[in-house]
Design a protein that fits this description.
Layout lengths: L1 H20 L3 H11 L4 H25 L5 H20 L6 H25 L12 H18 L3 H12 L4 H27 L6 H24 L2 H23 L4 H35 L12
Family: Belongs to the 4-toluene sulfonate uptake permease (TSUP) (TC 2.A.102) family.
Keywords: Cell membrane, Membrane, Transmembrane, Transmembrane helix
Membrane topology: Multi-pass membrane protein
Length: about 300
């Protein structure tokens, strides 16, 4: 019972991060399940089954707060479903470990670019037209397959790629990726059920993660609705860099002390980046109010 309560808490915290930054639920939950003794396929199966419920509630919450671009969701969902289904059914035949450092290095570079883009952008952010199908469909297929194989990957790949493209407002990137994940989770779950059978799935673990995630989903969507694009982009970029730096260092055989030092340096920089983003947004507000007639009420954009 204690283990289930801990898993529910993990599901809650993981969904708060995932629903706010567009990534983290699968990676966090899978890591804990693997540490608890579940095999990779069983851990990923439990995560995907729980995500059916958490992503449904998260998507509905994001829609209620206006965080979803439904055209993007419509293009992403089907390729993501196909990728997750294939990734789940082929998990036992693929050498996922060999791909880990390559994917981590790519995501690390993209995370650094996302952070730089939002910090170096002009004070008043502008976003280009929405991403095209030729960009979204292959990305959805790859992200869905990686998500099933690694127990997490839909958010890191999807959110990172869309943020780095600069074609969609960050809160709509997060909301659209989270909403499309409902279909992706169904694809992955079907693949695992066919490959493992219902007896191979830890339903109690999936249920505990589900309960915690459902509780956190509406709150996370509310946070995204009120965060400034620059602050949200920098926060997401920092999570990408921090997570994949650790993954890359571990896969290359770095010592625990080295990994801890690298993580502490990046975490400190991440805090400074967010503080700088907040300062830039305050400067935007100051510029906006400087030329208003005296006595004009100011409406906060937070």
């Amino acid at each position: 019972m204690r283990k289930l309560l801990v898993l529910a808490l993990v599901g809650l915290l993981a969904q708060l991060v995932d629903g706010s930054l567009g990534m983290g639920y699968g990676v966090t939950s899978s890591t804990l399940l693997l540490a608890g003794g579940l095999g990779p396929a069983a851990a990923s199966a439990a995560v995907h089954l729980s995500e059916i419920g958490t992503s449904l509630v998260s998507g509905a919450s994001h829609h209620a707060f206006g965080n979803v671009d439904w055209r993007t969701v419509g293009i992403l969902a089907l390729p993501g479903f196909v990728g997750a289904f294939l990734g789940a059914t082929l998990l036992v035949r693929l050498d996922a470990a060999a791909a880990v450092p390559v994917v981590a290095a790519l995501l690390l570079a993209l995370g650094a670019y996302v952070t730089w883009r939002f910090l170096a952008a002009p004070r008043r952010l502008r976003f280009n037209p929405r991403p095209e199908a030729w960009f979204l469909a292959p990305m959805g297929l790859f992200a869905g397959a990686l998500d099933a194989i690694g127990g997490g990957g839909w958010g890191p790949v999807g959110t990172t790629s869309l943020l780095s493209s600069g074609r969609l407002e960050p809160r709509k990137v997060v909301g659209s990726v989270d909403t499309a994940e409902f279909v992706v989770s169904i694809g992955g779950s079907l693949g695992f059920l066919l490959g493992l059978g219902s007896a191979g799935v830890s339903w109690a673990f999936a249920g505990a993660l589900l309960v915690g995630g459902v509780v956190a989903a509406p709150l996370a969507a509310l946070v995204v609705r009120h965060l400034r694009p620059r602050i949200l982009g920098v926060a997401a970029g920092g999570v990408i860099v921090l997570t994949n730096l650790k993954t890359l260092a571990d896969s290359l055989g770095a010592s625990g002390i080295t990994v801890a030092l690298l993580a502490s340096v990046v975490f400190t920089l991440w805090v400074l980046w967010i503080a700088w983003a907040v300062k830039l947004e305050q400067a935007v507000d100051a510029d906006a109010t400087r030329y208003l007639p005296r006595g004009t009420p100011v409406v906060s954009r937070h």
